[in-house]
Amino acid sequence: MVTFDDVVNNIELKELIKNAQKQLDVLGYTEHSARHVGLVAERAAYVLRTLGYDEHRIELAKIAGYMHDIGNSINRVDHAHTGAILAYQILKDMSMDVEDRTEIMMAIGNHDEVTGTAVSDISAAIILADKSDAHRSRVSKKDRSLFDKHDEVNYAVTNSELVIDKEQRKAILNLTIDTKICPVIDYFEIFMERTQMSKRAAKYLGLWFELVINNTNLL
């Protein structure tokens, strides 16, 4: 079986992640490098583990999370689709079982809010993990005078935590936003589509999605 560690140590994948970030830096996007994909991998695993899924599904979710943004090495546009195809081929070359690599391909291909939606347990976990990663560490620009609104909102988020409450069947995104940097309403302006996608992903897993900002429940 191809493991998460095998994927992390894959030289081809390391190069794709590195060059995806290189391209996004030029385009002015937020961080999508090893920090982001590593966090998505761990959070996706956490979602399924907390809900009682077996270790095999959890491992597949971690792998999908780690590989989900490699399409950015080709182009930001349609990165979910190109990334899914790249991932399928890399995992095939690593001799992963066809059923497993197809599951991963499907999850990666549906993680973007413009064209995707939750289509499996792994897909739903990836969406919740990916869309929960709003944080100032994602802002690559050093000069605040160059920030756009997306940068401002991410920079204002000083803490971001995804909590799965199995007993109450809730997925809770708990954010702390420094309102001296931007008002809370700006978060919704930037992230409304992501929030709606997270709600659908939570529903797929039988959960209610809640958004808590500065200790106030907003959804």
CATH architectural group: Orthogonal Bundle
Quick one: how many beta strands?
4
Helical fraction: 40-55%
Q: How many individual domains?
A: 1
Shape: globular
The total count of helices amounts to 9
Distance between the termini: 40 Å
Name the poorly predicted regions: none
**pLDDT averaged over residues:** 95
Q: Biggest sheet: strands side by side, in what order? A: 1-2-3-4
Helix and strand run = HHHHHHHHEEHEE
Largest sheet: 4 strands, mixed
CATH class placement: Mainly Alpha
> Which band does the percent of strand residues land in?
5-15%
Gyration radius (Cα, Å) is: 17 Å
Structural category is alpha+beta
CATH topology: Hypothetical protein af1432
Task: Summarize the entry for a quick read.
With 219 residues, the protein is an alpha+beta fold. It is 54% helix and 11% strand. A four-stranded mixed beta sheet has the order 1-2-3-4.
